[in-house]
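Researcher: Please predict.
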Amino acid sequence: MNSHRHPILQLPSKQGVAVARSGHEVGLGTEILSVLRTVLGLPLWAIQIVSGAKSFADNPVIGSKRLNRLGLHVGRVRIAHQLARWRRSRLGRHVPAAYRAEFAANGFIRIDNYLPGDEFAALRDAVLSTRAPAREMLQGDTITRRIAIDPEYLESVPQLRALTSASRWRSLVRYVASSASEPLYYIQTILTHRAKADPDPQTTFHADTFHPTMKAWYFLEDVAEDAGAFRYVPGSHKLTAERLAWEQARSIAAPEGVDRLSARGSMRILESELAGLKLPEPKTLGVKANTLVIADTFGFHARGHASKPTRRVEIWAYSRRNPFYPWTGFDPLSSRGIAERRIPWIWAAKDQFPKIFGAPWHDAGSKVPGSE
């Protein structure tokens, strides 16, 4: 048999043997390093079970199919929601009964004409005319721009401090967040259809994470239903038997059996799947300027599709704390003088250590909200 016609039968040369041995050694070294990473990382991954960590892809304990079949994920969901109910029961005495009932039924509170007309006009005009450092992110064809409401911005727009420090505002956002921690505040601009790209992933219904969290939108301009309005599935914040079964199934499928964002812990759901969870049709919240919406984003929500290029400008608040704390307060980062500086610190950390913290928000220079 001619070995030139059948190379696979050729005896290895000395060089080939060396390469084979080298490859074996490299493979063995890689395997040892992998085992060491697992051993060293296991305590941190295990500790994250009692934190807000949510990624099935980044934490092999949270993403363990065996553990999730045994109920790890749904156990975290159950305990987090029980503690949120406990915290809300303590914070609810500061919230009018009508708002508590609206939230219990829907998962969000909507208040039209939140401020008196003259106060709102002064706030809106000040915000829309104030230039400040901005960060932007392109998702699909949509640009999200954020300006930090930091000490410098509050000095330029003092009406914002009056808004967010008022007891009415604070009691509402704290109740929905189930936490007395101070939210992060931004001026947010959404610009749709600004790139030739796939659709905005935020238009797919999703839950932000596995536990109750709060986002608030105080709209400075009118938003029509077909202009990228906020959408929410009423009652989807409730931890029903159907929702728990869905959470378990998704946790077992993750990370490789779900989409990228679901694998990172923000579960996506198709609109056609909602009926299977005994949920109603989504509600699209077209709003007038001076409308406040505060939602529990464990409930399924999305940004509506825009029929043409649109913009919306809002004061945007976000609160997400460790869901396993039984207390409502005790947050040093919420202290005045510190709370307003958190966003610049976060941005600086992302800029300095992008491989650790990720840096999807790029510096967009100094802008006024709503500008192109």
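Model: Residues 1-21 have pLDDT under 50 and may be disordered.
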